[in-house]
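pasting for the record
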Amino acid sequence: MGITARPFWLGAILAGMLGACSSEQSPETDKASAELSDRPIVQWRMASTYPSSLIILGTMGKRVESLARDISGGSIDIRFYEPGALAPPFEIFDAISYGALEAGWSTPGYWAGREPALQLFSALPFGPSAEEYLAWFDYGGGRALYEKLYHRHNIHGLICGISPPEAAGWYKKPINKVEDFKGLKIRFFGLGGKVLEKLGASVQLLSGGDIFPALELGTIDGTEFSVPAVDLKMGFYQAAKHYYFPGWHQQSTFFELMINLDQWNALNATQQAQIEAVCSSNIRYGLSQGEALQIDAMRELSEKGVEFHKFSPEILELWKQPGARSPTNSRPPMPISLPDGRACTSSAPDIGCGVNADI
């Protein structure tokens, strides 16, 4: 027996019923659809202090661009721009503050000239590990202070990446004693640079692209920059062969997404949450990738003739002392007080007691 054909009228009724069901939506569905269609497309320019080709430091910034697009379903477009494309690297802070740029990718320590306290949110000499640093930021009051510092400059900052302990730097000649720092011309970052100044070094802060030429031409005698995988990419081994550890000055380093405060406040709650989710993912990515790449990088550096050194216990212990100074500089250290009123001693290096109070 063949298949019996359905009456024409039955098919017409069923089609009509299906059409009615598809066209009749609940008020809640209509409201959600309207919100999606009315949601503005966020289009931001993000100037970077690091090139996108630079592993970890730059690739984390580039990842913000792709993650924001994916997490928001394409409604948030944060376009990454290479250093100097929109503004010189060290002028990004002002450009965002004034509203000339919507966003920037950097590390808070670069803005010590604008807001000295921001150095606390990059790295601390003999400071906390990455997980301890994040715990303080999220649950120890760090976030509130960080946002307060930035908001008074019309910037909203988000910690958006982290890297593991760095190396202690590249030197053209071995560093055997504290006196070897006296008169040394060196590029050094953040609060660690202040410590070396106390030992008589001539410290300057150069952007990433300016370091190798200065080291190669002898404008500086040494430099620190980042972890071995990054330093390998920067090519420092071609101009200096003495590579020192441990990275006492940067046990972990925060990176940030800076956003013009007016632009941030113009976002709805969903968009703000999406950008915060981007940064949470980026923190995990930077930490795990940063740890994973170092062994192969150090092996390659060794093959290129780099000599690995460890600073002597005497040098490291001196750096931990309040008001650390070269023995040739007899000026007594200034007293330091902790936030709770206790005196700062060398037994509390994790909170930066190795840095003099007049920094």
